[in-house]
């Protein structure tokens, strides 16, 4: 199974939390109704679904390189205004200037050619269009992932460069603003979006890491069974488990937007 192959596994891991972030992101964008939206790296359809339910669009087109994610999006977002297809964010299969808004949710950190992707999004909206994105705050705001990777490093089960805080250190406001400016966008600004990530039990928390979809779940799946058990128990000890067994954490995303000149 590839790191980003299963839509159902991704939803169990962090997809359900990304739906909460999507709502805050769209509230901040505050685009007028009747717009045509492009969702780049649409994943399992969390952002597209939020656009359809809150932004009154005329069209929403989602593009993702994972056939599994596209199939999941099409199944969970059956709105006739929405279309989903497999495609490369570095060469979007869309015409110049056709969209009013191009957005990306939790995708920029998984592509190396981020400036190329943002330039493609700018091309897709044309002059005056909005380009916007959000990413998890891997360095300092994703408690569920930090608990995993901090424990992994304590146990010597990975190199320090595997930690999200190192791999995705650019997921900060200043770096995000610089990326959009480098892609030729104007009026760039950022905001934070914080959502609760509450689990009823540790088993519910840990089950999200068992599907193999995402960097942490893929790392876990590659470990021998005895190391997986040791890691599970050590992560449990690190988490703030309440008397009723629940675990209350938070997740922060940084959002950035700009206008195509």
UniProtKB/TrEMBL annotation:
Domain Methyltransferase type: 38-132
Enzyme class: transferase
Superkingdom classification of source: Bacteria
Enzyme nomenclature, EC number: 2.1.-.-
GO biological process terms on file: methylation
SUPFAM superfamilies: S-adenosyl-L-methionine-dependent methyltransferases (SSF53335)
Listed InterPro entries: Methyltransf_11, SAM-dependent_MTases_sf
GO molecular function list: methyltransferase activity
Keywords from the UniProt entry: Methyltransferase, Transferase
Coiled-coil intervals, chain numbering: none
Record-linked CDD domains: AdoMet_MTases (cd02440)
Protein's recorded name: Class I SAM-dependent methyltransferase
């Amino acid at each position: 199974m590839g790191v980003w192959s299963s839509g159902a596994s991704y939803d169990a891991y962090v997809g359900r939390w990304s739906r909460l972030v999507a709502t805050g992101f769209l509230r901040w964008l505050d685009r007028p109704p009747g717009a045509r939206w492009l969702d780049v790296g649409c994943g399992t359809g969390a952002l597209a679904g939020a656009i359809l339910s809150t932004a009154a669009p005329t069209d929403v087109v989602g593009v993702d390189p994972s056939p599994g994610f596209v199939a999941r999006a099409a199944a969970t977002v059956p709105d006739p205004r929405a279309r989903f297809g497999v495609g490369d964010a570095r060469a979007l299969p869309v015409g110049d200037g056709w969209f009013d808004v191009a957005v990306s949710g939790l995708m920029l950190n998984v592509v190396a050619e981020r400036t190329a992707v943002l330039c493609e999004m700018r091309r897709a909206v044309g002059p005056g269009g909005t380009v916007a994105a959000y990413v998890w705050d891997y360095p300092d705001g994703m408690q569920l992932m930090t608990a995993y990777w901090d424990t992994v490093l304590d146990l010597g089960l990975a190199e320090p460069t595997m930690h999200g805080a190192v791999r995705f250190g650019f997921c900060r406001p200043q770096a995000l603003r610089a990326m959009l400016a480098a892609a030729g966008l104007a009026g760039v600004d950022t905001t934070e979006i914080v959502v609760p990530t509450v689990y009823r039990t540790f088993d519910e928390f840990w089950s999200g890491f068992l599907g193999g979809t995402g960097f942490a779940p893929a790392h876990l799946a590659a470990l021998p069974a005895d190391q997986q058990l040791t890691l599970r128990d050590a992560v449990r000890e690190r988490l703030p488990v309440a008397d009723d067994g629940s675990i209350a954490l938070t997740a922060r995303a940084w959002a950035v937007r700009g206008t195509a000149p």
